[in-house]
Amino acid sequence: MSVENPVRCAVLGAGSFGTCLAILLAEKGHQVDLWARDAQLVDAIEKARRNPRYLTDFTLPDAIRPTTSLSQALDDKELVISVVPSHAVREVWGKGRELVRPDALIVSASKGIEVGSGKLVSEILMETLPREMHDRLCFLSGPSFAKEIAERRPTAVSLAARNETYAIAAQTLISSPEFRCYTTGDVVGVELGGALKNVIAIAIGVADGLEAGLNSRAALITRGLAEITRLGVAMGANPVTFLGLSGVGDLVLTCTGDLSRNRRVGLEIGRGKTVDEVLGGLTQVAEGVRTARSAYELAQKLGVDMPITTGVYLLLFEGKNPVEAGIELRSRQLKSEYE
To answer: Residue 47 catalytic?
Structure first.
């Protein structure tokens, strides 16, 4: 399905999700600059019309132009999708703010919470970009494995923005029958769901690695959703958002899908590998590792009870034994389900 009025687009970040979104936009008829820092990667994509590291089986349409130049990527673009890792958002957009059109739509698909500041990507972008661009910021999140998007398997996600007009504009430019965007005004809720589900997925992976069983998995998903919602409400999110695509939808997929990097991190730890061994073997970012620290610190600051997140933090950064972490989690004081 192509759009009637194609636009000039940029996708910042040539990982698996950036690559699949570039393919999606190009197949809709848009012209797309795909930006990456790595000159070897960009050169390989240009020559082979494939990404040699991510989604290697998919041919990139001719409408995709890879580049290492941020200036070229952002020059006169009407739609920019930012898929850089959350820890790189401040740096990339610190440079990009002088290069992007002031009337461009910017859609962030980065998931995470900044370590140290505890800030969401939306807060980082609003600090970095001129005030007049803030209403044009949109945030995409939901149950969406990159490989399945590239395979044109039906997918639905949330697209949040403070300004409904711009949310609808981005929705129209990005959506297809196989990739359906639903708009919402709850930016904080959509972002938190996308970031925190990665931490819960690590916990699920550990439990699966320890062969704790399906009952345990279901309990962790449900109680994980409860603590995500508690933090969200404390930060001003609408609790209903966590029952939607960017909440329970993304949580279930990331906690149960075999393509989940964060679940795989936990799985390997549960099977006996050390944290250093697991992290040293990663070829793609597992955002849940950094987010575990920032979410733990944010929960402490706001006084929000997040026992699963705390357990993952202690396991990853304080050397807690996975078996002991599970025992401590199950031995907490009994309480009402909805406290």
So the answer is: no
